[in-house]
């Protein structure tokens, strides 16, 4: 049976790292009906996000939770009733094995256990800050325009961490998207449920995947994001209230 997540421990409990799209694994018994190499593309995994999360966990000595199934099996960063929870098409690529998928079974096997684990961890650890690590492709294969951002900060209503994060990254010379290339007002399922609903400051950090697809890029962004996390620790310690 597939474990719902890979858990990394750390001695510093004020920060929790999450990575919903860390894996391109397809568990036994599920046939997506696609060429295996598609799983290595951004439709199957957030390229570089898993390694970056592991590296950042080690650098900060903080816990991290990384998902263990591909988002083509089920997207753990979607609400259970979301239309793209089990995608039939992703960036123009048909996923024929999902056409007749048992939605309830996949939720029971993967989505529900993952989110139960996150909920239990948040209750036990009670972090001051949750950082969700993602990556985005420089351009979609089918439609869309070039994405100029190096990083994006996604958030919904609570901007306590988001606005300082955007300012900090811009001060480092990073081209930073404010709710770009996606809006956290529309796609923020994991943090809405486990951070914002619990009054915990949080952001989703999106890094353009061509910047973290090798060791040098991972090292650079580990240093940057560790600096960002420490800056946010300081700003949150000042006791700012949620921004609506």
TrEMBL record:
<keyword id="KW-0378">Hydrolase</keyword>
<protein>
    <submittedName>
        <fullName>Putative N-formylglutamate amidohydrolase</fullName>
    </submittedName>
</protein>
<dbReference type="GO" id="GO:0016787">
    <property type="term" value="F:hydrolase activity"/>
</dbReference>
<dbReference type="InterPro" id="IPR007709">
    <property type="entry name" value="N-FG_amidohydro"/>
</dbReference>
<dbReference type="Pfam" id="PF05013">
    <property type="entry name" value="FGase"/>
</dbReference>
<dbReference type="InterPro" id="IPR011227">
    <property type="entry name" value="UCP029730"/>
</dbReference>
């Amino acid at each position: 049976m597939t474990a719902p997540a890979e858990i990394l421990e750390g001695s510093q409990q004020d920060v929790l790292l999450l990575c919903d799209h860390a894996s391109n694994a397809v568990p036994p018994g599920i046939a997506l009906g696609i060429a295996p190499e598609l799983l290595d593309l951004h439709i199957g995994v957030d390229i570089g996000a898993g390694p970056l999360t592991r590296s950042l966990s080690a650098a900060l000595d903080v816990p991290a939770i990384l998902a263990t199934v591909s988002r083509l099996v089920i997207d753990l960063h979607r609400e259970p009733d979301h239309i793209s929870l089990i995608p039939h098409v992703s960036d123009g690529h048909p996923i024929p094995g999902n056409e007749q998928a048992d939605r309830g079974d996949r939720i029971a096997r993967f989505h529900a256990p993952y989110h139960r684990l996150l909920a239990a961890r948040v209750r036990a650890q009670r972090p001051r800050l949750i950082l969700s690590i993602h990556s985005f492709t420089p351009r979609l294969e089918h439609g869309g325009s070039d994405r100029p951002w190096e990083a994006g900060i996604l958030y919904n209503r609570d901007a306590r961490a988001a606005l300082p994060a955007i300012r900090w990254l811009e001060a480092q010379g990073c081209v930073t998207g404010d709710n770009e290339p996606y809006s956290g007002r529309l796609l923020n399922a994991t943090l809405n449920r486990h951070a914002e609903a619990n009054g915990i400051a949080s952001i989703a950090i999106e890094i353009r995947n061509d910047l973290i697809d090798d060791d040098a890029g991972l090292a650079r962004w580990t240093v940057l994001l560790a600096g960002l996390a420490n800056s946010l620790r300081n700003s949150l310690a000042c006791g700012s209230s949620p921004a609506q």
